[in-house]
Amino acid sequence: MLGHMTIGDSTRPGAGGRRALWYSGFAVYAAGVALFSGPGLDHYWGAWAAGGYAIAALVTVVASGRPWGARLAIAASLAGALAAPALWLLTKEPTPPDVAVVARSGVLLLHHGTPYLPVAALSAGGWLAYNPYLPVMALFGLPGALGLPGQTWPWLIAVTFLLLYATFLVTLAPRADGRRRRALGHAAFWLACPVMAFPLTMGITDPPVIALTCLALALLARSGRALDDRARRRDTVLAALVLGVACAMKYTAWPALAIIAVMVFTRNGARSAVRFTVLVLAAAAALVAALAPAALRHPASILQNTVAYPLGLTSAKSPAQSPLPGHLLATLGSGGHLAALVLLAAAGLAIAASLVKSPPATPAAAARRIAIGLTALFLLSPATRFGYFIYPISLYAWALLADREGTGGGRRATADLRLPGVAEAGASRRTDGADLGAADLDDGQRAVELI
Fold first, then answer.
1. Distance of CA 346 to the CA centre of its chain
2. DSSP for 145-194?
3. Which of 5, 57, 92, 219 places its Cα 20 to 30 Å from the Cα of 411?
4. Is 319 exposed, middle or buried (CB count within 10 Å of its CB: 0-12, 13-18, 19+)?
5. Residue 304 Cα to chain centre, angstroms
6. What is the DSSP string of 369-422?
7. Tell me, what's the pLDDT at 407?
């Protein structure tokens, strides 16, 4: 999916037509948001993004087959779907709620060592007084607390882009047009598409968590292709640290930890899985302790903000109220709310049972299993919204790309690259009738390890 939309693929036959269709679909979606999203701030994004995507589609058709046309199309979509609406919202009131919560958490962290208000202040402050994020998320509010302009927007966007670039740099197989260039094109397009541009415009904090999760999966896939133990250990440790950061930002990364740990167990054994899990938890705990030491002295505040509030167990209710099954059940009263929680627990047990019966053996398979688990979680949670489905969409898209590139299996992937001098050497060996011991592999082509 992503591969057909990047700058590096702009000269491939039919690529322009595919890109035009994607941009046209994005424009229709954005127009729908502008027309039907109601009185909130979402319609501002829809109005700006529809124009940006329409221009991108037009440029793609007019400049089909030209590399500069693909670059101009992505620039138009980034300008219309991200930069312009974010700058517009920066000047408007009220501030999007996610921006307000993270910005306040940065101020609290800077001055009090905790991103959470005391329990006594929560009941009087309404739902905006709650902070459902874990302490590391407050880092996006620190620049504003220090007086830098832009509130949380520029930092969320910049960090997400860099993480996406790193993810694609690790995921993509080497080709003649250059992996770095292709990774840049993938990251730019994915940042511009509605899956990332819409939530980032609204200051929503999920994109960096998604990018961290995909980067951890990509590193684990590369560790399985490594030629030596040192490289394998390095990538595994990096993946654990990256996932630890995600787990210290938001609870939505924790299902990924459980499923990835099972994948590591299946692929590398119990000892490796235990080491990986301990390292992830240690990294997350160290970050929380270092960044928010005062929060650890008030565990009741952490539980009220990050557990009770998202589950709908507080007097203030989350505005995440999309008409999905869990929320619809919760609206029926206490009995319905309990039924939603029971179904949520049952879904968790079903996912756990599937991990026992058919554990994922590769990072790409783990990504798909995480996508399935999060889909069930979002469908059955009492406080939920349609926007959360960017998680399964992104994870599944990464798995598709990794499989297409031959880098998602966590095994030594190969690319058929003809190397100078190898063909001649292979031909001479064939002439001698030597047993090459490499069935189905032409001697003029060598398996080049993707490091």
1. 26
2. HTT-TTTTHHHHHHHHHHHHHHHHHHHSPP-TT-HHHHHHHHHHHHHHSH
3. 5
4. exposed
5. 26
6. HHHHHHHHHHHH-SSB-GGGGHHHHHHHHHHHHHHHHT-SSSS--EEEE--TTH
7. 67
Q: What is the mean pLDDT of residues 211-222?
A: 96
Cβ contact 96:203 at 8 Å = yes
**Region at 333 (left for phi over 0; alpha for psi -120 to 50; beta for the rest):** left
CA 426 to chain centre: 44
**Structural contact between residues 283 and 240, judged by C-beta atoms closer than 8 angstroms:** yes
Return the pLDDT at 430: 41
Averaged pLDDT for residues 379-383? 87
Nearest Cα residue to 233 out of 274, 261, 275:
275
C-alpha to C-alpha distances, 319 to 49, 130, 382, nearest whole angstrom: 24, 11, 11
Radius of gyration of the chain (CA): 24
pTM: 0.85
Which residues does 216 contact at the CB level (< 8 Å), separation at least 6? 239, 240, 242, 243, 246, 256, 260
Q: Could you tell me the sign of the dihedral formed by the alpha carbons of 360, 363, 368, 371, in that order?
A: positive
Please give the average per-residue pLDDT across 260-274, as a whole number.
95
Provide the CA 10 distance to its chain's centre, in angstroms.
25
Question: For residue 346, how many C-alpha atoms fall within 13 Å in the half-sphere facing its CB?
Answer: 9
| pLDDT for position 418 | 38
Compute the average pLDDT of residues 60-69: 84
Pairing of strands 414-417, 446-449: antiparallel
Identity of the residue numbered 336: G
Distance, in Å, from the CA atom of 209 to the CA atom of 243, rounded to the nearest integer, reads 9
- Collect all residues with Cβ–Cβ distance below 8 Å to 385 and sequence separation of at least 6: 320, 321, 322
- The amino acid present at 382, given as its one-letter code, is P
Q: For position 273, what pLDDT does the model report?
A: 96
What is the enclosing helix (H) or strand (E) of 90? helix 84-90
| Length, in residues, of the chain | 451
- Per-residue CA distances from 396 to 1, 111, 169, 214, 370 (Å): 10, 40, 18, 10, 9
Closest by Cα among 7, 1, 295, 263 to 137: 295
Q: Is 377 left (phi over 0), alpha (psi -120 to 50) or beta?
A: alpha
Q: Residue 102 gets which letter from DSSP?
A: H
Report which secondary-structure segment, H or E, holds 30.
helix 15-36
